[in-house]
TrEMBL record:
The D-isomer specific 2-hydroxyacid dehydrogenase NAD-binding domain, residue ranges: 110-289
Ranges of residues in domain D-isomer specific 2-hydroxyacid dehydrogenase catalytic: 7-320
Statement: the UniProt record of this protein carries the keyword Cytoplasm: no
Protein species of origin: Salinicola rhizosphaerae
Keywords tagged on the record: NAD, Oxidoreductase
This protein's name: Bifunctional glyoxylate/hydroxypyruvate reductase B
Amino acid sequence: MSKSKRILAYRRLNDQQLDQLRENYHVDYFGKLESPDDPAFREALGEAHGLIGAGVKITPELLDAAPHLEAIASISVGVDSYPVEELTRRGILLCNTPDVLTETTADTGFSLIMASARRVVELAEYVKRGDWKASIGPDLFGSDVHGKTLGMVGFGRIGQAIARRGALGFGMKVLYSNASPKPEIERELGARRCEFDELLKTSDFVCTIVPLTDETRRMIGAREFKLMKESAIFINLARGQVVDEAAMIEALKSAEIRAAGLDVFEQEPLPADSPLPQMANVVALPHIGSATQETRTAMAQRAVDNILAALDGKRPLSPFNVEAWGDRLD
Ligand code: NAP
């Protein structure tokens, strides 16, 4: 095959993955892209038939600059950085990386549950500061995780994997609110689907893991925090925009809820003036849901396999908008 098509890669790939792409395609590689306004990136975009990457908001304006584009392989499961309808309209196939990150992201979710409930970060800082002079008193006690009620807002792949950890590992009662019922996992875990408000009122841990869409944007705001128990711990592993961050900060400051464990934020990286990192009842992580060596390598590999299959006219493992290519994938 002559190398007539070009792939633009804008996230770090390992040498083996780059070699795999270069076997049949010309590759423009930006392992550490600072900005999509970089003139060299723009030039490569103008020639690209395939994109592989993450962390860049793909706008219709960027698509206008990419007249040959056939397919995009995102190194993420979430597709909120892409104008999906616009891609479909233009006949551009979008692929994502479900499954390979499910268990790792669920581990991150559960570590936020544990760290927030048992005040792990706050108390580790206390030891580091040299404040541990005597046994701690009730003012620094945490709360139990085992046996509590875990309310999952979103019960897809990752939500179910978190619930499995809670139910089977920690004897937690699982409630969920989700677009559709999940009878199989209800049976497996004894989980129960309930109304959103009931979940908010009765859960000890409220954990959001839905995709960011028009429907889920700011689905947790002042009203929802008011419905939660005063002892509730809120966990956000989905996207920052699923929550009204100002309302969450207010709920944490006024003790409407006890604590929050957060992997995602309205603005990332967190702006310097955000109060969240300084709040004792907040565990804030730098969006590390899937960030292990093994999982990030597997995600990049899935994206490489997806883009190679797509540009070769074969059905990729995980296409997101199959309708973009009509009959081409059947
Ligand atoms: P998934 O399997 O598609 O699960 C998403 C679930 O949300 C589905 O069960 C879906 O319902 C449900 N849902 C969608 N809209 C809803 C709504 N309006 N109300 C209630 N439920 C709704 O996806 P996943 O693999 O679990 O990933 C979920 C999201 O997690 C991703 O889109 C991404 O944004 C985020 N994520 C974050 C990280 C991180 O680093 N923090 C890592 C990975 C993923 P149905 O089953 O009925 O469709």
